Amino acid sequence: MFTADHWQSLKSHAEALKGTSLRQLFAADPERFGRLSRAHNDLLIDFSKCRLTAETLALLCSLARAAGVEARRDAMFAGEKINATEKRAVLHTALRNLSDDPVIVDGDDVMPDVREVLAALGDFAEGLRAGEITGATGKAFTDVVNIGIGGSDLGPVMTTLALAPYHDGPRLHYVSNVDGAHLADTLKSLDPETTLFIVASKTFTTIETMTNARSARLWVANALGERAVGDHFAAVSTAIDKVAAFGIEPSRVFGFWDWVGGRYSVWSAIGLPLMIAIGPDAFAEFLEGAHDMDRHFRTAPLEDNLPVLMGLVGVWNRNALGHAARAVLPYDQRLSRLPAYLQQLDMESNGKGVTLDGAPVAVETGPLVWGEPGTNGQHAFYQLLHQGTTVIPCEFIVAAQGHESDLAHHHEMLVANCLAQSEALMLGRTEAEARAQLAATGLDPEEIERLVPHKVFPGDRPSLTIVHDQLTPFALGRLIALYEHRVFVEGVIWGINSFDQWGVELGKELATALLPMVRGEADASAKDSSTRGLLAALRNV
Ligand code: F6P
């Protein structure tokens, strides 16, 4: 049973480690990397630059056992309704279940339906890619615009960018923001005759998506006539009845199920744009990569289980060391949307303040997740990472090889920079080192003393590094699943429901109420003075 004693022993252990720097830990143990890194095939995670020891990992694994991580994991895979507040199973893993094993929800195997939708998606994607499915005037589609937001946007947009070297289908565009600029800028370069829209919304009620979809519909109707609309739209949703009301013909509607959370839906029909871009075979490899991580998560002992260890290190950083944020720093330009994707995955899942039974949580939960690709970030916010007063654990992601064989020297520089950053964060630069470096430049002693404090790097800043061979569809699927399960493990330890998102509702309700006030059609006098003042300022310009 998981008790306050477990937290206490972690805290005491953290306290005992306080006096020892990462530098000292490395100096004391030449085998530290071997002891504190773990691999699953070509996927390796180096935890040795985290502020922990082998004893810490052992303590954390016993915490995971006491918290029932394994039982909860098995309950998720077994289709139990672990999303208790919404009374739903959590089965995004079924979408990439490429085995013959059934997955049972409410007594029924969901796999036949999953396979049927996957096959229908494949047919549609192939038809489109081959130019057999055409627009109203018979021209092949050259451009596909996905209209969705949150989980109905970030997954496809992030993965499409990540797998650019595998694109051999039509061009993909993504419109998410209700800001008309997003739709207008996207449509500017497109030809209605050769553009297909996919309206992606789990609920088919999301105001941004519905507004953009209606405007896109008008764009098509104005250019090609109302009768052309059906040929230029497809939809992805769990709310098939609502899609029908929008006027999209049933053969162009791809369903999924309430046991797929929005932020876990890229494996479902929501992944259609990616499938159109890279083709059904490469999409199957993407699913296979995630399936591979699922198997690893289900079967590897906790001590060697990558998502479990990542989750535990997350808990250690958050609760024992008190770090409120973590930075995701992919040294991979094509993963530039991964931090945004992980923000939703992580912060919408674990940004919770009550436990599963509704009691306030006793410990801090999900951290702030943010980041940018290296090396760009190095020339922007890394200053704070190295010398700022807030310590932010970093997560580096890098591949052994890029896709640009003619630009291999670029990749070598990328790798060198990635390794240099984690080394610099860990080692820092002491006063003596800073002084010696300045002296070597021939500066006079007074100037050296003036500059030394500015040249010191405190170091001792934790990071982990994820390495894989290459960003293939398989590797990307595996990486996303790694993060999904990591978020799951953290949520179990914190005792929260990682699968609902009630916190997004209040703002939506208030926006609906404010719209008539923005339009000047309703009285705002009951609003607070700030909201009234801002309304007045915005309405007077
Ligand atoms: O507002 C949050 C949210 O509900 C996310 O959880 C979801 O991914 C997104 O909105 C989009 O929802 P839908 O797919 O239903 O349009």
UniProtKB/TrEMBL annotation:
It holds the Pfam family PGI. The active site is at residues 348, 379, 508. Its main location: cytoplasm. Keywords: Cytoplasm, Gluconeogenesis, Glycolysis, Isomerase. Gene3D superfamilies: 1.10.1390.10, Glucose-6-phosphate isomerase like protein, domain 1. GO terms for molecular function: glucose-6-phosphate isomerase activity. It is found in: Cytoplasm. CDD domains: SIS_PGI_1 (cd05015), SIS_PGI_2 (cd05016). PROSITE patterns: P_GLUCOSE_ISOMERASE_1, P_GLUCOSE_ISOMERASE_2, P_GLUCOSE_ISOMERASE_3. It comes from the Bacteria. Its EC number is 5.3.1.9. Pathway: Carbohydrate degradation; glycolysis; D-glyceraldehyde 3-phosphate and glycerone phosphate from D-glucose: step 2/4; Carbohydrate biosynthesis; gluconeogenesis. The keyword Aminoacyl-tRNA synthetase does not apply. InterPro entries: G6P_Isomerase, G6P_Isomerase_C, Phosphoglucose_isomerase_CS, SIS_dom_sf, SIS_PGI_1, SIS_PGI_2. Coiled coil: none annotated. PANTHER family: GLUCOSE-6-PHOSPHATE ISOMERASE (PTHR11469). HAMAP family: G6P_isomerase. This is Glucose-6-phosphate isomerase. The lineage of its organism: Bacteria, Pseudomonadati, Pseudomonadota, Alphaproteobacteria, Hyphomicrobiales. The gene is pgi.
